[in-house]
Every structure is written in structure tokens, then in C-alpha cells.
């Protein structure tokens, strides 16, 4: 089949796209990608990817815009919608999978307008506004947080399953603030760095590009050795080497840690739409698979408590909880449920 994957803007959406394209190509499908010039779409798929063709259209988010800014954003989406229709026709696309984010709007609506079956994946526990709008028109709506979803689980790259392991004791901790980094997590890491050193716990830290130099200088002043990154695409190997994570609760990273068996203390991003990161980590807390704490004065005390907690039982339960081959199941479902050819 000839398929389109659309969406992005943030690393979480794009990691789902990566998992899906790997599964689709393994099944012999030809896949194109339609994303945006804004966000991280080009960084992920601009140079090397498994897509046969990639397109980055001029779009931006609408939800946080006001007045004239909202009108301009909508005009960009309309222009991208027309361009997407032409791209879908050119490649004779038979089905489209939206992975969410503002990047998905143009190609998703273009697919519906051409009667191309649309499949939607919702990555968060709280549905995004675009996905709520698309849901009634989608052939499938898949979510790891919805018990009525036709496919359970979350699409994670195979490498996180391949190198999964049970954590026995805390030798290495990793701090993850998301693709842009998180000052609150960076400050937390710096505040406990000396205590971790005294316990002979190694530190891996993804600080984000904007805060990298400050964090680097402060570690040097503390005299604490650290494996420090601004941004890295080697996250799987870093997580594999770690025994505990301190992380934002973006869905993609949360499920990657789960698939790899790495317990985590989740620090939800306080300004996430609908507070979805707090709810993303709800099942972690409810099933005693890890920990969650909001930013604030209690955060440091919580981490100092967590580093003394046993890890083995939580790690084993994480591994048993994670569903394997979700991306492959999503592609298989698409194969069996899509029409043989689009009505375009």
C-alpha cells in the first residue's frame, strides 16, 4: 500500500511516526511524511529516514494564537491543506495515519476531503483539540489510555524492547527534560548532584540546548562528573544504561521508559494543555510502577526518597505491563480495514 504519515511538532509525536514507518516499511509499504517547517519535524526526518518522500509545509499552531495571529495560522493551514491534496494525489495515497500535533491538520483534512481513510493516534491521556475534532471522522482512533481503543498499548521503537532489562540497584540516574529540556529538572539535578556523587551514583543528563551552557558550568563548579547532552538521538542507549530516570511525563518518553523497564520519577510539565502530562503518569502511580511529583518545594525531598527505594519489583512490573509490537499491530489493522484504493 501507499501510505501517508502526518503530524509532529514535538519529539513525542515524531517518535510515534518513526515507530510506524519502521513497521510499515517492514511490511513492504511505501510511506510518505507530511509535516511542518516549524517544530522538530525537519530535524527528525529532513536528512535520513525510512520515508520514500518527506514534505515540510508552512504551518503553525492555532490554539495559542490570538486575533490576527490566529487568522494567519489558519490561512497557513488552508494553503498547506491545498498542497497536501496535491501531494496525496501525486503519490496515490490509500490511507493516512495522523500522529497528532499541529503539523497533522493540513494532511488530515486533505485526506478526509479526498475520502482517503484517516487513522488517528492520540498519544496523551487528555485528547488534543485537533484529535477531538478528527475523532468522529476517523476510521480508527487509537489511544493507550482509552480502554475502548481497538489496539491497546503505545507504539515504541523496537530498540527499547530489544535492550530492555530488569533494574536491580541504582548505579546510574538519567535526567530527561524533554526535547527542549526543562529548567526545573535541570535545577533539581544540580541540587542533588553532590549527594549522588557521595553515593557513587553516575549522572546522565539531557539539559536542552537553551540551558546547556549554564548547567555545564554549574556541574564544573560543583566538581561533579556528568555525562551531559544538550540534545541527543541516542536516547535508547542512554536509557538502557540507566537504572532510574527523572523525566517529564510526555507520553512517548514515558512509554519508552516503561518498555525498557526503567523506573522513573515523573515531573509533569505544568503548562501542558489540559495538564495532560499529570494524567499521562496516572497509571504509573496507580499501579505502583514509579513515582510522580509536581514542580515545587517537595520535589527535591521526593527524589532523595526515591533514590533509596528498591527498583527490582517496579522494573519487573513495568516490563510485564508494556505491550510489544504496537506499531506493527497498528499497521496490520490499517492493512485489513482500509479500502483497497482511495476514492480520489
Model description:
The chain is of the alpha/beta class. It has helices spanning 11-26, 41-45, 68-90, 105-113, 129-134, 159-162, 183-198, 212-222, 235-241, 251-260, 276-280, 282-286, 298-306, 312-321, 326-337, and strands at residues 2-6, 30-36, 53-57, 95-98, 118-122, 140-143, 172-176, 202-206, 227-229, 244-247, 264-266, 291-292. The strands form two sheets. A six-stranded parallel β-sheet has the order 3-2-1-4-5-6, with helices on both faces. A six-stranded parallel β-sheet has the order 9-8-7-10-11-12, sandwiched between helices. The radius of gyration is 20 Å and the shape is globular. The two termini are 15 Å apart. The model has no long low-confidence stretch (mean pLDDT 92).
Instruction: Give the fraction of residues assigned to helices.
Output: 40-55%
User: Could you name the ranges where pLDDT drops below 50 across 5 or more consecutive residues?
Assistant: none
Structural class: alpha/beta
Quickly count the helices. Answer: 15
The main sheet orders its strands as 3-2-1-4-5-6
Distance between the termini: 15 Å
Order of helices and strands: EHEHEHEHEHEHEHEHEHEHEHHEHHH
Overall morphology: globular
Main sheet, how many strands, which sense, barrel? 6 strands, parallel
Average pLDDT reading: 92
Number of strands: 12
- Provide the β-strand percentage band: 15-25%
Tell me the Rg in angstroms: 20 Å
